Structure formats: structure tokens, C-alpha cells
Amino acid sequence: MCGILGFQGGFAASSLQQGLACIAHRGPDDGGTFVDAQAQVGLGHARLSIIDLSPLGHQPMASDDGRVQLVFNGEIYNYRELRAELESRGHRFRGHSDTEVLLHMYLEHGTSMLPRLNGIFGFALWDARSRVTLVVRDALGVKPVYYAQTERGVAFGSELKGLLKLAPEAKELDAAALHRYMSFLWCPGEGTPLKRVRKVLPGQALEIRDGRVARAWTWYELPVFRGVRPDLSEAAAIEGTVAHVRQAVQRQMVADVQVGSFLSGGLDSSAVVAFAREQSPDIRCFTIEAVGGQEEGNTDDLPYAQRVAKHLNVKLDVVRIDADRMAGDLEEMVWQLDEPLADPAPLNVLYISKLARECGIKVLLSGSAGDDLFTGYRRHRAIMAERAWSWLPAFARSGLEAATGRLDQRRAWSRRLAKLFRGAGLDADARLANYFVWSREADLMGLYTPAFRAQLGAERAVQPMLDFIHPLDGKASPLQRMLALEQRFFLADHNLTYTDKMSMAVGVEARVPFLDLDLVEFAARIPDGLKQRGSVGKWVLKRAMEPYLPHDVIYRPKTGFGAPLRKWMRSDLKPLLDGMLSADSLRRRGLFDPQAVQRLIQANASGEVDGSYTLLSLLCIEIWCRRFVDR
């Protein structure tokens, strides 16, 4: 919906305006600031008008007495119900925005309102009565919020590029976070590439007093941590899945502007469109055709998207992109993402969002998170298959890892088999976390300079994940623990991050119906065997959608965006690779060993190793450093 920026402490009001200019793409419709020089507080807002397009939705929004000021990014989907309750208590409203409802909820309930908000948001408010700044992120982390604690005070905002205008001194690199970007291609946990800039975690709130974070607490925990256990019968699970997905989709269509949808032709986005069409028969959908964009082992999405559009009788706009030319947008992608996420898939979101905006659509429904609630990734199938070999002694499991690791990595099937057994010798929770690892720790240490390794010390890339699921030891199945990792890390720190940044780069809001809180709570009650049944992932969702979608769409092979990255490294990206990762460039940066990187480039080019994503991660980190640190 918008972008927020603010501070408490000794920051210049002029830098607030400079930071807002950096995130103006998030809110091209309106903007505003509030500054109390005496209290050393500032709030800024860039508005994308979605609900209540009138000036009554302007932000920062103040209470009647002016003592509480709010800036809000996102949507509260149950705001109408909350408004009716507030009106019954005597509250009076000037407009009809969800922002005004949020403000009155705080005035009525204080921070105890947070568990009652069903939506996607990052917001900040200044309460002059208690002299506290409150900064909050939504339950599942759909909307990003960063903050920096500096000697001058605390700065916070929706995007790092705006935040650094307030706190340019916060540019010291974080070795542990960079190691995680290299390990996973993204960074699980609160870390960012900068040591003093942190992410507000999903379902977390910060209380800032006197220019310091005085309190940080978690106001939302995933159901599995609250003791919710699978208890549904097959019939109840199927029937309830239909009801909850339908409710989530139609609840999230609330807007005073036209709502469209992503449509990849996969089950999740197709399910979203099927139920959205019931409320909006003329909904406009968007997909992508990346010419030359499929690598071995991936399936072309376009025919399935066209099949669904015809079946549901909805309009489908196709963005046709030359996948080889996408390589030229890599540098811009890193800038928009704020973080060095080494994945070309965000470009799809950018291209589709750009076309939607050109068609006058400001809101797109996304099918993201279906796999993270109901299963669907290969790792979920692998976890269920572990029972066939996890009983083996550690030395035998390590032997499986060694044997599959020697297979020819130029073939998709052998890469996947090697990944399946990578870490087989580890204990149970470590194996779960290891499924997310892209590059092994031992391999990465050989790429780092001695100085970088010394900074890392004994830091383990997987530690945030292990710490997170440790309380579930013995209380949840391996699949339940894996889905908790998906929902907390893979979604919030990767998929949702790039979906937000790349859609908002062109002033489009992406909504995620599968993360409606009622649906998340319901999905936690579905037994493992109804989610992953043998080799069939998302079994219950597939059964639920059989009356609504073609059978060949529901049971199609799963695929991701198969950018021809291995080809890019030999052709389109080679000049960028040679320049950014030259020996001189790497020596100046001091993070990566020039000779080791050159050996990796040569081994990848010859096919000796499959190092394309590791090289992309190196490349993205260097691009990121040049844009965010050097400048």
C-alpha cells in the first residue's frame, strides 16, 4: 500500500525528506511528514491509495488531539468488523480507511489490539502521551520493516535505501549475514548486510524510548508453537480448505481500486483466481512467458495459465520477455530488493507488476505461500521419505551423502539427488535446516579471505533456524517443524521480501490470501498425511480444488521459474562477472579470495561443478556493496 520512514533521536528532518524520495515508488499518490523537533521524532509516508482514495486517508494520520501520529503500510482485511465494534463504543470516523480504524484501535486498546489485526502491514506511531514510538510488523512478515540503532537514535522504514538516508553511518558490513546470503541465497533471521540494520521480525513489535529500543516482543506465534495439533478428518480437511481459501481470497479483494491477479498456471494462483472470479467475474490476470527461460527439469507455465484462464473465462495478459535480456536487469533488481538475494525469480514479479500498473491495476492477488502451508516442495517429499533411511547409523547416512555427491552435477536429476542426501549424516533438526542450504559451509570457507573467516569465527549459517525450532523438539513431526521453518524464514526472508519489493517498485501492492490468519490457523490442524501423501504434495488442496479447476492443472508437474542461469554465466552475465569479480575488485572489497573465485568461475564454465548460483550470490553481494555502501 505504501512506504513508511521515521526516527526517534537526533536525526535531521531534511534527511527524512531525502529518504522518502528514495521510496517514492512505493507511494506515488500522496505523501506527508510529521516532525516534532523538541521530542526528536519524525514520521514520513509515501501513499499508494487503495482504500479511501480521498484526502481523509492522508498520512501521517493524527488523533483528534494530535497527540498520536500514525504512518501505516499495508491492509487490515477485517477493518470493517473492527470499525463497527469501535463505533458501538462511541468512536466517530471522518473517512472510511483502514488506517483510521487502526488508529482508533490503538486509542481504544493500546498494543493489546495487535492479535486482533488480520492483515499485512508495517506501521509506526508516535504517542506523545507516553513519549513512545511503536514499530510493528504483521504476523507472517508480508510487509518488510527495517530499523537501525545508532549513536544518534533509532531510524526505521519499509526499505533499506530510504533508511540509509537517515542513518548513513550504519554502513558497516555484517559478516555473519553475508555468510548466510552465500549459504542460502537469502538471509534467514533478523540480519541484513549491515551490522547495525536489523529486520523487525514477523509478528514482532518494538517500543522505542529516548532514542533506544527499550522493548521488543513477539505478539504472534505460529499455531504449532501454541500447541495446535492436527485433528481434522479427511472430509473436514477438504471441506474446510475450500471454505477457508474462498474466504481468504474474497476477504482480501477489499479495495476502492481494481484488483487483478497473478496467474502462473500452478495450483495456488489458479485456486486464488477461481475464488476471486466468484466475486469479480471480470478479474484481469497476468502471467509471463520467458522465451528461452527454461532449463532442464522445468516445465513451461504458459500453456497451463492459458488453460486456467479459458476454463474460468478470465482475461489473461501475457508479458513476453526474452530471458537472455533479463540478465541486463540484474543490477536494477539488486537495487530494488535492498538485499543481495541471488535469485532471478523476482524479475518475474517486476515485469508482471509493471504491466498491471500500465493497465491501471494497483492490487494483485498472489498465490505465494500455498507450498508453505500445504506442502509442495521437493524437500517435503524428501522429509516424508526419510523414514526409509533415517534409522541408519550416522556413518551409513554419511556414506549416502558422499556417494550421491560424486554424481555428475550437470544433470538436473543428479543435482537433486545429491541435494536430497546432502547432510544425511546430521541429526534431525540440522537435517531440516540443511534442506534450505544452497552452498555448503566447507565450500564457502574456501572462497573467503582469511580476514573474512576471522570475522565469522564459529558462526553457523543455520543457527537462526535451529534456535527457532528447538522448542518444538519432540512436540511436532518433522514435516510440521519444516513447515514452521518455511513460514518463518523461507517466506518472510525470501519470497515475501522479493514479492513486496518488486511489486512496490512500480506502485503495485501484492496480497497473499494463503497467509490469511484464519487460513493459517486452519491449515495447522490438517494432518501430515493429508498434506503430503506419498509423492503427492498439497494433497488436500488438490482434492479441494477438483470441482473448480481442470484435473491436468491440479495434478501438473510442479515447476519454478527456470531462468537459464547456467547459460547466463557463460554469455550474458560474463562481462558483468568479469568486471564485478575481477581480482582487483575482490581485493578491494576484502571478502572473497580472488584466486578461489577465479577457480570457481573456470570449474563452473567447464561443467566440473555446478557453481552458477554461488557465482550469482558473489555477484549480487558485490553489486549490492557498490550501490548501498560505496555510494
Could you explain the architecture of this structure?
The protein is of the alpha+beta class and about 625 residues long. The chain has three domains: about 1-220, 4-Layer Sandwich (Glutamine Phosphoribosylpyrophosphate, subunit 1, domain 1); about 230-375 and about 490-555, HUPs (Rossmann fold, 3-Layer(aba) Sandwich), CATH 3.40.50.620; about 565-630, no CATH class. About 45% of the residues lie in helices and about 15% in strands. The chain is built from 29 helices and 17 strands. Strand 13 (about 260), helix 7 (about 265-280) and strand 14 (about 285-290) form a beta-alpha-beta unit. Helix 6 packs across helix 23 (about 540-545) and helix 14 packs antiparallel against helix 15 (about 410-420). The chain is globular and about 70 Å long. The mean pLDDT is about 95.
Write the layout of secondary structure elements.
Elements: E1 2-9, H1 13-22, E2 30-36, E3 41-47, E4 61-62, E5 68-76, H2 79-88, H3 98-109, E6 119-127, E7 132-137, E8 146-149, E9 153-157, H4 160-166, H5 175-184, E10 197-199, E11 204-209, E12 212-218, H6 234-251, E13 259-262, H7 267-279, E14 284-291, H8 302-312, E15 315-322, H9 323-326, H10 330-337, H11 346-358, E16 363-365, H12 370-374, H13 378-385, H14 394-405, H15 412-421, H16 428-434, H17 441-445, H18 450-456, H19 463-469, H20 478-504, E17 509-511, H21 517-523, H22 528-531, H23 539-545, H24 551-554, H25 565-570, H26 574-580, H27 583-589, H28 594-606, H29 612-630
Parallel strand pairs: 13-14, 13-16, 14-15, 16-17
Antiparallel strand pairs: 1-3, 1-9, 2-3, 4-5, 5-6, 6-7, 7-11, 8-9, 8-10, 11-12
Helix pairs in contact: 1-4, 2-3, 5-29, 6-7, 6-21, 6-23, 10-29, 11-20, 14-15, 16-20
